[in-house]
């Protein structure tokens, strides 16, 4: 059986390779001008993200034992994960006070799914199992919330005239905005959909590989990975739906945006 140590040894060579790969990523972004506008320094963001990832994983390595063996530690760890996801998603979408509403799409998908898994006994209430599964689901909800929100907000800004024309024809503000935002936001589901459709053919995802390294049979590893992928699609679909609804109702918006809607949630 292949061990984790033989798969990726932690030594000086690994450190050097990681630094080189990070430099390549930042260098390519700089050379080809992959920043969306002059106010965004994408190469710097890539470098900072890599350093932050290293620091955060080091910190997690120090506290994970405490978190998975104590109920208070487990709860605190999950709350921190959720809070960071909300903050990250919110600030990717807007700089005004509405950023915190990204908690709704992330929680709407993740909380019922995790609760159902616990109540049915499919997932035990143990940190060693609950933390990675919750992390995968929260991360998936974070990703589609950002993608759906940015696409919807960008489309509404670009096609503002169409929204006003639809309202002139009698549609409510929410309905007019929904007609523009929903098709664009639905593209956020494509990465997860493609990952599920091509699993085993193009990639072997982390849960599958991790189970194999832990000594599980290929059948068991495949069942766990299938469970993760299906649960993730459910979470992401809910997150996109809630995100679009918040934007269509003008609850989540960018600075300077105005609304003529009198509807409420």
Describe this structure in words.
This protein is mostly helical and 265 residues long. It is 73% helix and 0% strand. It contains 11 helices and no strands. It has helices at 4-7, 12-31, 42-69, 71-93, 103-119, 127-158, 160-168, 173-185, 190-198, 206-213, 218-248. α6 (127-158) packs parallel to α11 (218-248) and α9 (190-198) packs antiparallel against α11. The chain starts with a helix and ends in a 17-residue tail after the last helix. The model is unreliable at 259-265 (pLDDT under 50).
Q: Enumerate how many helices there are, as a single number.
A: 11
- Strand runs, count: 0
Shape: globular
Unreliable spans: 259-265
Look at the structure and give the mean pLDDT. Answer: 87
CA-atom Rg in angstroms:
21 Å
Main sheet properties: none
Structural class: mainly alpha
How much of the sequence lies in strands comes to under 5%
Q: Please give the alpha-carbon distance between the first and last residues.
A: 54 Å
Helix residue percentage: over 70%
Q: What are the secondary-structure elements, in order, as H or E? A: HHHHHHHHHHH
